[in-house]
User: Fold these one by one.
Assistant:
Number 1:
Amino acid sequence: MSLLVVGSIALDSVETPFGIKEDVLGGSASFFSTAASFFTPVQMVAVVGEDFPKAHLDFLRARGVDTDGVSHEKGRTFRWKGRYTWQLNEAETLDTQLNVFQSFSPQLSERHRDAQYVMLGNIHPDLQSSVVDQVKSPRIVAADTMNFWINRTRPELLKTLKRVDLLFVNDAEARQISGEHNIIRAARGILGMGPQRIVIKRGEHGALLVEKDHLFACPAMPLADVFDPTGAGDAFAGGFMGTLATAGGSLDTSVLRRAMVMGSVMASFTVEKFSLERLHEISRADIHQRFSEFKRLTHFDDLPVLDA
């Protein structure tokens, strides 16, 4: 099944307690596409500048990502610089240079318009809606957003939410959109805005899938080495959507739960090194092994009812 992502490609400079990396591959579309490519072919629509290293595109193509929709514009590539403390929960943004991304206006080819699964990366809600206008008959349209868009473009975001089937947000964003502090009430409030499903990414505390009549909580993998959380949420979404795309359109509870675990698997690999370095190294066998570790981590036998 065809999977399309529209989002950002960036050159990131990241500082954590474990080191500093300059001008490494980043952006929502990069992390999403790489993670999803382990499950299904991916089409990418994004923009880069004249300074973007060819080696990064070669890597994506080697992973089976179709980069024909990546436009090359005059100017510099979108750049982001951030720093993490020992908590590793949230980055402090030190610098953002939109550069060519500032005028990004996604135009889909005829082939992209036929995509069955669409991921709207973290871009302006009006751009997300323009992508929905262009695709023909997708089975699932998923979207991500962030506090900047929630604060600055709320009316546009609410219009977009009416047109998506699935929303990926973190717990703070869910509270911000809904106005509810309790995370379950927040999720259900967002369901009333349009999406049929919401996935709340909770970092080291895992992720929560909320539907009208179904909840599923997936833990994060306990890891000995966590170096860089950048892009983990996008890698989660890539694993999730890649799994759905291989399921032939089924949205059964078992498929959604498997997608949640696969999302957590891909996020867990991503944080083990900087940027996409860890995803350069792993194989499908590594993914299957970690999926099995998740099963052992969460499995337990039914217990008898305790005596009063």
Number 2:
Amino acid sequence: MAARVSSKANASKGRTVAASIPQLAWNQIRPAPVVLVSGTEVFLAERAIRSLRDRLKSEDPSLEISDLAANDCAPGELLTLASPSLFGEPRLIRVANVEKCNDVFLNDMLDYLAAPADGTVVVLRHGGGVRGKKLLDAIRAGGGSGIEVVCTELKRDSDKYDFAQAEFRAAGKKITAGALRSVTSAFSDDLAELAGACQQLISDSAAEITDATVDKYYGGRVETNAFQVADAAIAGRHGEALVTLRHALASGADPVPLVAAFASKVRTMAKLSGARGGSGQLAQQFGLAPWQVDRARRDLQGWTDEGLGRCIEILAETDANVKGGGRDPVFALERMIRIVSSHGRD
């Protein structure tokens, strides 16, 4: 359900007026006379706009689609595109670069908000910044009967996990928790790559996507191998962790992200060591996903606070060694794995 948000918009004489329009997530986009797509996450914004286009096209195949650059707009161009056609086809006008808009577009769009054309959807893509603030304030105050679709960058691992999970859920495809975590970790640096990887896995004919499925497609990704090494070591499987480490290094893995994978998991364990409460409550408290809380709790079995402290110290030393502070990064990694596998008792 769309949430309504209130804010304050500056009026021309310094007064403030209450503003309230629906704000939607990227995957909740729907038709409206004016659709403001804001935020810095380009991939989500493009997908949202494409989804809206597909929806309008399915509703009426005669849809006329026009593209306009707000930073290169001629006088009257917007109004011409929005004018009803001879046969009254619905129209979609996609406006790019609103954050760089020229004065011509700004003035024409402000005028347009007073009387949007019937049967026309104007999508405004604003990637951030102060340019065009007057227009954004007018839309957010209700001008043009608009809505806002917010596409902020997904920075937290839990957000990326939720995104990937939604991809499989929308496709009706089952995936194990471990496989979902692996693919999210493997493509955490690029949302477009993560979405592409999810679609590749979704197209697999297996009834359920497992760790083996992910490894078949993306076993060479550094992050996937890194977390496989960390998982084995934290569980106390020293031999398996060493074998997986050597496979990762032979596949071209860089030691730095390998150490980062260990650090991520051990720090999460340290945060939750001794914490009390439900998964949802602790997830909110520590900025994690509930699955991360559950996984860390399982990983903590057999560990002591002293062991965690010892491993955190070793991780810091290893990180320095693999970044040039030591002569043999492989030896440093193997020593780290030995100590982690012993739960910090070695």
Number 3:
Amino acid sequence: MKFTLSRLKLRYGGFWGLSKAAATGLVIAGSAATAEPTIITAFGDSLTHGYGLAQGDGFVPQLQAWLRDQGADVTVVNAGVSGDTTAGGAARIDWSLADEPDALIVALGGNDVLRGQSPEAARANLETILQKAAPRPVLLIGIGVPGNYGPDYKADFEAIYPALAEKYDTLLVDDFLGPLAAQAPIEQVMDTYMQGDGIHPNAAGVALIVEEIGPKVLQLIARAQSRG
């Protein structure tokens, strides 16, 4: 959140005839009165977009409601695109940053795994996104990888996220669907928290995810506000 003269649309000429102390007080009072919400762009794929869910049940609206319940003055922008890969994200990140959000949630990689794309390519694409996002604070969200492509692929892909989080000093959530994977037994998880495709969470599943990720987003907001 930036309390700058340009963002508040204050002009120097408006302070003519005021003492320095009075002008300073007016700036502070005006800033407090017109403080804008922190803008967070949620940049991801169908998990972010809310595939298969009614309006209001997806990740972004549920996260928005959870944050407001915690007293956060924040607007979460849905920049999720169903089917998007890390390559697609790298190609559209400039467009998503055009509105100058205060912070980003980056949650991509699941579709790369579904297509068997290389961990090296996914890491390079995510690195492009993080480089362009700077200096905004970022919450990077990884994805759990099944063993279909072997243990080396799984280990290499899952290692991308903590490595990039350390390199670029981002906040980190290891696995978007982790809160669901932690439930047991798996048959009950599929029936209770997942849509019929077995890939996307239902509204109840999203609620569990938001409860887990929400505190990290509060940390993200604090980082954004500390930048002024």
